[in-house]
Amino acid sequence: MQIHHQTYIKVNPEKVYQTLTTAEGWNAWFTDHTVLYLNENGEGKITFRWSNYGAKKENIEDGGDILTAIQNKLFVFQWSPGDGKTTVKFELKPVKEGTLLLLEETGYTASNKDLSVCIGCAAGWGEALTLLKMYLEYGIVCKDDYRF
Q: Domain of life of the organism in this record (predicted)?
């Protein structure tokens, strides 16, 4: 099972890349206390954190290795939302005055838990890319209001 999304963001790839490869970038539009370490070889670690998230007001933490970071082009990390690790790839392509952002998540198994998580992440990534677009294009941050 795979997840695929794409969106056009009317800002340059440099700004999109900076947002995806820094803790400050993620915390500005999506998470609360993400920690990210990226070395000069384009590898590192990422830990996403959400506080009081959702209807159950849960504290959630997930993350893993950053596998590849190619400046203004590609950001790939692993995390474990289901039974095992999945790989999330953000590919940035310059288009007109902005960036075509392609997202792919792979690695889900056919287990019941992975099927359920994959469905949730498929919807979640679509919503997340909309939040990223609103943040980068208009400076709108709706993550606090967005929580159910």
A: Bacteria
50 in Cβ contact with 59 (< 8 Å): yes
Q: What is the CATH number of domain 2-146?
A: 3.30.530.20
Assess contact for 49 and 33: CB atoms under 8 A: yes
Q: How many CB atoms lie within 10 A of CB 94?
A: 14
Buried/exposed code over 31-40 (b: 16+ C-beta within 10 A; e: otherwise): bbebebebee
Instruction: Fill in the amino acid letter for 34.
Output: T
The DSSP 8-state label assigned to residue 84 in this structure reads: S
Please identify which residue in the block is written with the tokens 């919807």. Answer: 123
| Per-residue pLDDT tens digits for 87-124 | 999 999 999 999 999 999 999 999 999 999 999 999 99
Whole-number Å distance between alpha carbons of 70 and 11: 18
Cα–Cα distances (Å) from 137 to 34, 46, 127, 141, 143, in that order, read 22, 25, 15, 11, 15
Residues 47-89: tens digit of each pLDDT: 999 998 878 889 999 999 999 999 999 999 999 999 999 999 9
CB 34 within 8 A of CB 27: yes
